TrEMBL record, chains A, B:
Taxonomic source organism: Paramylibacter kogurei
Name of this chain's protein: UDP-2,3-diacylglucosamine pyrophosphatase
InterPro entries attached to this UniProt entry: LpxI (IPR053174), LpxI_C (IPR010415), LpxI_C_sf (IPR043167), LpxI_N (IPR041255)
Lineage, opening ranks: Bacteria, Pseudomonadati, Pseudomonadota, Alphaproteobacteria, Rhodobacterales
Pfam families per record: LpxI_C, LpxI_N
Top-rank taxon, per record: Bacteria
């Protein structure tokens, strides 16, 4: 039996458009790849691509599947809920890994992802960042929307950046909403949309100046960008609009923008700004 | 005209039971005092006490009212929403103070309170902490509930403490919820109850082990404890229960417990623990 081609890419696919974009890019480049979905995650788009499902508890089977498909590289893309693990389903490999993985679950998000990345490394796989494959999606400095941030928006964005940077030191969240200097929400495990829903429910006394508020999103300072790079897109703009915000800010080079053109179009339609902020701004 | 008695206490009354307890304590000690309510805040209990309403925009009138009642000391008690200020109503005093106050509004919660405290100081009033009057309400180390924290609860409490301490550096929040090491919510301007409601809405994937979760509440590290000391009580226990948590943790000496006996009783009924945590635990 011939060895399978040995430079394939396994796409560990979570929610959102990012895994689909990666799969499409691999197809376009005519490079070998395999999309992997977990449990009952809805991945309708995957029918157009080489696709396998996997279970967290069957780590041995997962590694075999990836190897058998000729994949030596792995990319994690899109958010994934923490699984409800059933110990009765553990295979031998997962049983061995479980103590380490479960311990990391208690130490924060980033630590969990770092542990998972180490496990893949030890199995001989190289971890690739989505941003290195989809370079053209990495946000580049500028304000491509028609609306431009006001002085208050700029002050709010800088306060939000300060808060997110601080919070990142304890491995929590990638995002925050600030309006008129007041922090209205901080991102926790439920993600950006849940945070923006919370803001949308925040009543008038805390938001007496209605025309204020920015969403800031950035990688955590010590984050392994290969495995959890922030991504925004049209959904983010819609959610920010529902939350009554003026705009969305990400740092230069610090986020993927899924379909920049469409994202700017929606921002313009809803009169929000999109600001890819340089470190010196 | 004789000078009014010059050691009275003005109780700037926000929400919750704390201002009422202060008024009752002053009445019990037979010391002069005056309860001050703002705008349309519901202070039904105040009919039993010397009471005046005030408006934020009429700062000059407010200071006169306090002075005329013979109050030289001021205590801020209970949370208050940020007011919707109407510049047409500003009196001369507020017009002078407005630039400074509005600037501090944009620099965070604590800064706003510090500025307000300075203004009262400059007017010749002494700011008193609620904890110095209601010393018996300051939480003292121990676990007075029947339920005791598990090892996981203890790990969660320490992670929560770490997060709140970090967040305090940027003057945000006094509370946080951690379950199985995962941060489920961080307190922002909307307060503890809104945070716990958010947690109550957090769906299963993020909380696969249902029997986990603590609310941690503490003063910010650089906070002026005289003007925003955390307080908990039966409401906090009820809200923590609705959020599916195991217990509530406050630091030794770091919070007022409004009616400890009743709070412990409710905690026991709902099978939550109440832990007043020493710094070395």
């Amino acid at each position: 039996m011939m060895a399978a081609q040995q430079n394939g890419l396994a796409i560990i696919a979570g929610r959102g458009d990012l895994p689909k974009l990666l799969a499409e890019e691999c197809a376009r480049r005519n490079e070998p790849y395999l999309v992997i979905g977990f449990g009952n995650a809805a991945l309708k788009w995957a029918v157009d691509h080489p696709f396998e499902t996997a279970q967290f508890e069957k780590a041995g089977a997962l590694f075999d599947t990836i190897r058998n498909a000729g994949c030596t590289r792995v990319v994690f893309a899109g958010s994934m809920s923490r699984p409800s693990l059933n110990p009765l389903k553990y295979d031998w490999k997962f049983t061995k890994l479980a103590p380490r993985l479960l311990k990391s679950l208690g130490a924060g998000d980033d630590e969990t992802l770092r542990t998972i990345a180490s496990v893949f490394n030890e199995e001989g796989f190289e971890i690739i960042g989505a941003d290195s494959i989809l370079e053209n999606l990495v946000a580049k400095r500028g304000i491509p929307s028609k609306r431009q941030p006001s002085e208050i928006d700029r002050t709010d964005a800088n306060r939000a950046r300060e808060i997110v940077t601080q919070l990142g030191q304890v491995d929590v969240g990638q995002g925050c909403v600030v309006a008129n200097g007041i922090c209205l929400a901080l991102e926790t495990i439920q993600g950006t949309d849940a945070m923006l829903d919370f803001v949308a429910q925040t009543a008038a006394p805390y938001r007496h100046n209605a025309d204020a508020g920015v969403l800031f999103k950035a990688p955590k300072p010590h984050q392994d960008r290969r495995i959890d790079f922030p991504a925004i897109g049209t959904d983010t703009i819609h959610a920010a609009h529902r939350a009554g915000l003026n705009g969305v800010v990400v740092p230069d080079g610090g986020a993927l923008i899924i379909d920049l053109q469409e994202t700017v179009k929606i921002a313009d339609e809803l009169n929000l700004f999109l600001w890819i902020q340089g470190g010196d701004e």
